[in-house]
Fold this sequence. Notes:
- By secondary structure, this protein is α+β, with helices and mostly antiparallel strands.
- It has nine helices and four strands; from the N terminus they run H-H-H-H-E-H-E-E-H-E-H-H-H.
- It has a four-stranded antiparallel β-sheet with strand order 2-3-1-4, covered by helices on one side.
- Helix 7 (about 230-255) packs antiparallel against helix 8 (about 260-275).
- It starts with a helix and ends with a helix.
Amino acid sequence: EKQRSTTNHFMMADRPARVQVTVNSTKGPALPSAQSKSGQSYNIWYHKTPGQNDRKRRCDRDAAKARCCVGKDAGRTKADGDPSAFICLHFAKGQCALGPRCDRLHRTPTHAFDAALDPGHDCFGRERHATDRDDYGGVGCFTSDPETQRTLFINGLTSAPADVERRLRNQFGEYGPLESVRWIRSKSIAFVRYRMRTSAEFAKVAMSDQALVAGSSEILNVRWATDDPNPGARKRKQREAEEQTMQAVSKALRSEDDPQLEQRLRQLQQEHLHPQQHPHSQQRQQQQ
């Protein structure tokens, strides 16, 4: 799958990016400012003015006017060759009117792009935050669990076709390599996890307010998933994090080539694998 993705990017880089919309066909996305036309202050965190509802009801959501088709839209732009360039947000929405003249990348994230990107920005160059919005929309949170940062929550699957999981894999998989897809039929919701955080960021923009079935009335609400509340899952992730820390410490200590440090490392590993109980806990168990 990684080799196929690399080949596709190579082929797309050999052609100019397609102009997705003409200037006359769309007014273009309006850039939010600190002051709205009505004179009220504009909240750029929630993209609303005071008095507006924090969330739109599903019936109030508008279907997306365009969609990014990577196979025919992606290609070479002015940003190619610039290692610091970000991906075009309007390209991900299927609404970039500049095409090859755009100063942003017109392609999906690659493994090299994902590895080079700092945790403080998303693939479009927007600043990420230390906390999630209360509706789990927006740019995303860099302090949440790494798996959560790669996982999208989708609801609004009203049509519920028999092959919905296949459609989820095909349509969300267009924007990056998938790790897992879970569809909960009874609740008409789904969880899509990518192998790269930047793929999830691109797909969240590209698939918001879209429909799995063309011509249907469904409007997908794509948000960030929350951390797994399952205690077993949390313990497993904590154990994995501790093991990674021990491996990093082991590597650092071995580079010092000190026998005493090596002995201390083995002792720490034994304490990690077989933790001793507190004396009061042992005494309490004996009394029981």
